[in-house]
Give the backbone structure.
Amino acid sequence: MNQPQRHIIIGTSGHIDHGKSAIVRALTGTDPDRLQEEKDRGMTIDLGYAFYNDLVAFVDVPGHERFIKNMVAGVTSIDFVLLVVAADDGVMPQTREHLDILNLLGVQRGIIVINKIDLVEPDWLELIKEDVRELAKGTFLKEAPLVTFSAINEEGMEELRRQIDLMVEEPTKRENRGYFWMPVDRSFTIRGFGTVTTGSVNSGELHAGDDVELLPANKGYKVRGLQRHGHESDCISIGDRGAINLQGVHKDMIKRGDVLCTPDCGQATTRIDVRLQLLPASPWKLKEQSRVRLHIGTSEILARVRHIDREELLPGEAGLVQLILERPIAANRRDRFVIRNYSPGITIGGGIVLDNRPLQRHKRLDKSVLHHFEKMESPDLGAVILDCLQNSYGAKPAGDLVRSIGIAESLLQNHLADLERQELVSRIKSGDQFLFAAKSEVDRTRKMILGDLEEFHKDNPHLSGIGRAELSSKFMKTTEAVTIDTILEDLSREGKLKLKGDLIALASFNAGLTSEQQNIYDRILSMLRAEPYSPPTLKELYSTLNLEKAKVDLLINYGKSQNEWIVLQNGLIYPRTTLKEIQEMVRNWIEKKGSITAADLRDLIRASRKFAISILEYFDQIGFTVREGDERFLNS
């Protein structure tokens, strides 16, 4: 199958009634506002679309509100724009606002069209030209072609077509993330076909029969059929206006603001970190907790502002901001957006998404946070991936990085391989997948583990090591268990620590007691061996030894770590060899008698009932015996 030739999209913008639709109609012969076109095409792309030729289409959005909602949605699909100014009106408020929005959304090329020249005198037209050139200063249109035109008598048609054809020859280079991404602007039903959704394809490609995921609902659907620019197609791709016929979904389940994407490549979020530019003409400064209207993709949502690098944002300034959204949306890193004042609805700024799912609320003016944002703005994807891992809680699977970085896994894996070769990223096996972590974070955890072990041995020279669970719990907030286990195994192979069962110790460490401790330890052993079946309790040891409880507990724990004795639940201490001996006695008794009671064991070992009960309860706990009423049986 040959890849279809990419379409060129031309956007129109300008003040209401300045003739945008009339210009499109004159150039294409199509009225972009006709409702009948939907009926004629069957699967209409959009009421505001008209075709210049087979590969070039206009998107015309009459009216201020629809301009913002649709232009933001389609900005990554627009190759260039016609900024329309009526000669009889000149530059008007919406002319300025639309140009501001185009700048904020990163549009880079365009043509200025002064329309309705049939209504003015030549001298007036020259004044309008000067005003328009003054307006364009400092914008992407500062050196743009300027064409005078009349949609009524088509004066200037030849020149306008020439300028359009020149623009078409050099289409805008677009960032392709490598996976399909289309913000939905319409959803409707066609008899005999079912649900159809339309939108501008911002990234990747989609084929008939593919699976797609609907965000933020996180639901999967099958693609039944496709149209690109009004014609049946088996593929739609970046830059296209697409119509997608989906199986098994009602039109009411998909709404404007949703996104259709390659499964597992997107995520819903309720906050985004952004670089925000406030327009110089904004009548308001942006304070902490300001409520704004966010336009991103085809979504319009209310959001609260949290400043990261300053206390407030003044008109004309750019700053780092976290936007807290009032409902989940789908957004990608590097998506462009516009914000408008909550009330009245005036465009006041816009910018670019740096992080589509920040981990936490940032501490304002924190140097490490500002450094993180500096990296996230980098055009170097390797640097972005590394910074994402360095600021993550533990290692991440590739899928998480796809959703955070905003590139397909095939492209991501190439960058990860480069970072591994540079020894900047570590690959960690976890079940049937791999996790990725910044090597600096792995090294930091390694250093902390070795440091914690050193401190543990210093405080507990008598213990053979620390339990794996106890050591791992110290790092669970920042590192997942599989990474800790991998680090421990690596350190063991390197000969830096030793693993003995559940205990972990530095390779150079050997547990031992001071001479004073050894003397006390020997006294404890003597007391236990004196009455092996009726040993003292912990309480009795404290009293007899007449020592601080902490000193005795230290030695008791040491004896446990050396497998010298076992402390039962009621505080009785038995030498391990004694319990083994009693265990064999109980086994022989049950094999001969069928069962054993506490009274039987009391008589057998010639000890009081409390000792017999404690021992039998211990045997129950370790699964040696099973209790039924007053009797114990061997656990088969």
